[in-house]
Specification:
Length: about 625
């Protein structure tokens, strides 16, 4: 949500900033802008639309701007004020002394604005950000150009969340930053400093990054990155090395990041298994370092997350529950968990799952659980993210950088690592037998090849997707281990194809939703060959009787199921608990090809942000 890029060095700033913004396009945005120090002035360009249009506009700036060696850029996802060029960042104070970009929400912007307006300051935008900009200019004037002092007062006065990146007109080559609530990362490479919202924007320059903590500020110049607390005290910060490179965040031969990332899932699962198993044993319990005996005494495990991460949590809940019903395992939506009076304390283990590690609701939920004395574990895909740093016991999912807004390979990373974690926890508790452990690990090891075989049948899925792209909407139905998949399949279609799609436990259809069915709504039914096959097929028949076209996903070889289907897709067989690891691939490919058939913007769907850093 909003992307920031800043550069102070010796190279052409415009190119570096535009490249950094492009790499953060996936965060979601509607407008973009840049401010460059061009000799003795700061020159801005803004557009409503894509970064590529901003790049064209930058080329039209005065010639001296092409040689500029410092500046800041921004992609805006509108919260306060419409999507207009005026509301796009950077914002400039009325006196021209401060130019600033912001990610987050300034909650007391109205108060600040009316105070400054009564002092004669003219506001020109509808944004909350302008209040921060004008206030900083006023403070800078009052302190006679003391940047640190002004920043101290600014950060004390602002309420809400912010990552601020600032140019002062009379401080050439300097960029000031401040962070509370919204992510910001800085880096140094030779004679340049950079900052960005997202590490992927900096990977082309270095993998050693300074993650700004809550309540930290920075002064970046070609010579050094300096850090301060909000009180103005100097801070020494260590870099964190990211085990990613910029090629991982390239599209390669694919038309879309999403398609590339779907294809990477067999490798994600392989890497997770190789990292966390020794032969037929899970080898994560030691690295997790939970207090000895904790798993024997906890009564409940709460898996807390949002969106796709929540569906990954549901998969893990089902795996844990299938081996141990003495433990109360629940998958919780973080935005609800944080406001409910949820049980916690020494007998509770909470696992916070977030690919970005920056989702505002998940972070807030984790802080609440910690305050209740609940034992906490984080599962995130981004080393150095806020969740990784705030929760002592953090386990990384091993998906690598994901650029497509719609999560695919990070879902695989999450369910893989959560399966390992679940096994490790149950082993500690003494409720997972060596036989089941070996069976699950053996099952997991066989899955990458099964996933690959589905990817090789992509044309089959494409044909189905093109046939059903004109459908008025979709119901995804299934039972037990398929329920999280119905949710993920429906979410993918909503996100990238913008089609109405609902997920229902198959047995729930006749309690209401079945009333909606007719020939215009397609039912996608997940029916693996388990003890629930017959029951689920009965639910499918109920839908068929209402004339809904039925797209069935069944176990390979289940030819008898054809009789229930308008169209059928055979999913390779696996251990029943592990069906989601295989069946999610055709669902992702189906959504991808429906969206393609409808000409949607697959990697950057409208209205969505990759990581939701505001509440
Ligand atoms: C998934 O396709 C979505 N982009 C979204 O639901 C996402 O999973 C959710 O916002 C949670 O993000 P997180 O994993 O980074 O916390």
């Amino acid at each position: 949500m909003c992307g920031i890029m800043g550069y102070a060095g010796g190279k052409r700033a415009a190119e570096i900033i535009i490249e950094g913004l492009s790499r953060q396009e996936y965060r979601g945005y509607d407008s973009a802008g840049i401010a460059l120090r061009c000799e003795d002035e700061i020159v801005s360009a803004k557009i409503v639309g894509r970064v590529s249009e901003l790049a064209r506009k930058v080329k039209e700036l005065p010639k001296k701007c092409a040689e500029s060696t410092s500046g800041i850029g921004h992609t805006r996802w509108a919260t306060h004020g419409g999507v207009t060029e005026t509301n796009a960042h950077p914002h400039e104070s009325a006196d021209g002394s401060v130019v600033l970009v912001h990610n987050g929400i300034v909650e007391n912007s109205r108060e600040i604005k009316s105070r400054l307006e009564s002092e004669g300051v003219k506001f020109i935008t509808q944004t909350d950000t302008e209040a921060a900009c004008q206030l900083l200019a006023a403070l800078y004037k009052k302190t006679r150009g003391d940047a640190l002092e002004s920043m101290k007062t600014l950060t004390a006065e602002l309420r809400g969340a912010f990552a601020l990146v600032i140019l002062f007109r009379d401080r050439p080559g300097e960029i000031w930053c401040a962070r509370r609530g919204s992510p910001l990362v800085a880096a140094r490479d030779g004679s340049a400093c950079y900052c960005a919202s997202d590490p992927t924007a900096l990977l082309a320059y270095t993998r050693d990054l300074f993650f700004l903590e809550e309540g930290e500020m920075a002064r970046l110049s070609p010579e050094q990155c300096e850090f301060f607390g909000f009180g103005g005290e100097k801070k020494r910060k260590k870099t964190i090395r990211l085990n990613w490179d910029s090629v991982m965040a390239d599209k390669g031969r694919h038309d879309h990041f999403m398609r590339k990332e779907i294809g990477e899932q067999p490798d994600v699962l392989r890497l997770t298994i190789d990292t966390h198993t020794i032969l037929a044993e899970v080898a994560m319990d030691k690295s997790l370092a939970l207090p000895p005996g904790l798993m024997k005494r906890v009564r409940r495990v709460q898996l807390v997350a949002c969106g796709t991460s929540n569906y990954a949590a549901l998969v893990a809940r089902d795996i844990m529950e299938s081996f141990d019903n003495s433990l109360d395992v629940s998958a919780e939506i973080a935005s609800e968990y944080r406001y409910r009076n949820v049980a916690g304390g020494d007998d509770t283990l909470a696992v916070f799952v977030s690919q970005s590690g920056e989702t505002a609701d998940t972070l807030a939920a984790a802080r609440i659980a910690r305050a209740r004395g609940t034992h906490c574990v984080a599962v995130t895909n981004v080393r150095g993210s806020t969740l990784d740093r705030e929760i002592d016991r953090a386990v990384l999912s091993l998906a690598g950088p994901e650029v497509g807004v719609a999560a695919t390979k990070t879902f695989m990373g999450q369910i893989s690592i959560l399966a390992m974690l679940s096994m490790a926890l149950l082993k500690d508790r003494g409720t997972l037998s060596a036989g089941d452990e070996a069976r699950l690990i053996g099952g997991l090891r066989s899955i990458p090849a099964l996933q690959q075989s589905i990817i090789e049948r992509e044309n089959e899925i494409k044909t189905l997707a093109e046939k059903y792209a004109g459908s008025g909407g979709f119901f995804f139905i299934g039972r037990r281990e398929c329920v999280p998949l119905t949710m993920e399949g429906a979410l993918k279609l909503k996100e990238i194809a913008y089609l109405p799609s609902e997920a229902y436990a198959a047995g729930e259809m006749k309690h209401g939703p079945i009333a909606m069915l007719d020939e215009k709504l397609t039912v996608v039914a997940l029916v693996p060959d388990t003890d629930l096959r017959e029951k689920t097929l009965s639910n499918v028949e109920e839908c068929r009787a209402r004339n809904a076209p039925i797209l069935l996903l069944v176990s390979e070889g289940d030819e008898a199921a054809r009789a229930h289907a308008t169209d059928i897709f055979f999913v390779p067989r696996t251990e029943p608990e592990l069906f989601p690891f295989v069946a999610v691939i055709p669902l992702q490919l189906f959504a991808y090809h429906v969206a393609r058939a409808l000409g949607r913007d697959i990697d950057m769907p409208r209205n969505l942000a990759k990581s939701v850093t505001v509440e």
